[in-house]
């Protein structure tokens, strides 16, 4: 596989859903694209001012390098990050390694955003 082919395996883009930053990753996360994903993920995490959602709903396969990226992300923003995915190729490695306990996972971006907004509201002081 050439470098051009490897680069085409994954796409990364950012969005905001109902005020919550979302980083969308699609394709396959393996050693060929891990650095590309890291170059997008780490600055995005560092720029978060509140909760964020890492959208992996479009990721079909995640190798151990993808798990390493998620560990790095969880360490950088432990209470501010949730995942969105229902893909077996992502969920199964998370479950087998115990990573699902570190990073809450929701099946859709909308449910992940709902969880983040609920957590943000729960942390707000009462106005009563």
Automatic annotation (TrEMBL):
Entries under CDD domains matching the protein: STAS_anti-anti-sigma_factors (cd07043)
InterPro entries noted in UniProt: Anti-sigma_ant, STAS_dom, STAS_dom_sf
Molecular function per GO: anti-sigma factor antagonist activity
Domain STAS: 10-116
Transmembrane segments: none
Family, similarity comment: Belongs to the anti-sigma-factor antagonist family.
NCBIfam families found in the cross-reference section: ant_ant_sig (TIGR00377)
PANTHER family: ANTI-SIGMA FACTOR ANTAGONIST TM_1081-RELATED, ANTI-SIGMA FACTOR ANTAGONIST TM_1081-RELATED-RELATED
Protein name (database record): Anti-sigma factor antagonist
